[in-house]
Amino acid sequence: MRKFVFLLLLALPLGAETVTLLHISDYHSHALPFYTDQGERGGIARAIGYLREQKGGGALIFSGGDTVNKGAPAWSDKYGCAEWPWFDGILDAAAFGNHDADYGFAEFEKCRKSVRYPILSANTKGLKPYAVFSVKGARIGVFALAGADFKQLVKEPELTFEDPLAAARETVQTLREKEKVAAVVMIGHQDAEDDYAMAKAVPGIDLIFGSHSHMRRDLTRIPGTNTVYISPGQYLTDISRVELTITNGRVTDVKGGLIPVDARLKEDRRVATRV
């Protein structure tokens, strides 16, 4: 056993730490499991059961937004944002998604105030642009964006949106130069095509958690960049799980993949009872 531990320690460079990050997105108030071409998937009780376990192990956990959805049909039409507080103590931050204002600005504000985790959007008036988390001595900078289509999708006059690319450039610069973070992570909420374009136009983003496009894509490096991308699809079919190796204040390795939300995941009993 001693020999095994010694060899395991040698596997990482001196001074390296591994930080685990998880991400869900585009839940759209689909609380119950449902049938897919990959079998039964989803279920908020399963997802929270797994996320709570990972949180206990020190993971950072994020949402890419679109937690509710008017007229999908989704149970938010009846129960509103009932699930938002269920993620308290689990989510570290969430992106603002276009559907999160489906029931009006006043209802969105009510939902936002019902939770302790911040709702981020670097180019949305009144919302925090980013958050910084310290894990194992490493500072992780996390930001979100409202996509270029939000001006057409979101009709609430209290919510105004600036250019996402300009906001990304300014936020990444702030995180790198002012906040001195070791890693920059984008958690949502714009199309995959725009995510890829942003990675090429704005150096310094280590990881993009995809959202909005509802794309299910395993961990991949965006061509022509040092940015990696992963996207969990929609309705809690999967959870993105990524491990960043940080050595001497910078990301030196990225590993990860998609975790299927299916019957193999143990349900959170309290959430299952509520559902």
Computed structural class = alpha/beta
Topology pattern, helix = H, strand = E: HEEEHEHEHEEEHHEHEEEEEH
Helix count?
A: 8
The biggest beta sheet is recorded as: 6 strands, mixed
Strand content: 25-35%
Gyration radius, in Å = 18 Å
Helix content: 25-40%
Q: Mean pLDDT across all residues, rounded? A: 93
Shape: globular
Distance between the termini: 44 Å
Ranges where pLDDT stays below 50 over 5 or more residues in a row are 1-10
Number of strands: 14
What multimeric state do the chains show?
A: single chain
Strand order of the largest sheet: 6-5-4-1-13-14
Can you describe this structure?
There is one protein chain. This protein has 275 residues and is an alpha/beta fold. The chain contains 8 helices and 14 strands. The protein has helices at 2-10, 44-56, 76-79, 105-113, 150-153, 164-178, 192-201, 269-274; strands at residues 16-24, 34-36, 39-41, 60-63, 93-95, 119-120, 130-135, 138-143, 183-186, 207-209, 216-221, 228-232, 238-247, 250-260. It has a 6-stranded mixed beta sheet with strand order 6-5-4-1-13-14, covered by helices on one side. A 6-stranded mixed beta sheet has the order 7-8-9-10-12-11, covered by helices on one side. The protein has a two-stranded antiparallel ribbon with strand order 2-3. Strand 7 (130-135) and strand 8 form a beta hairpin. The protein is globular. Residues 1-10 have low confidence and may be disordered.
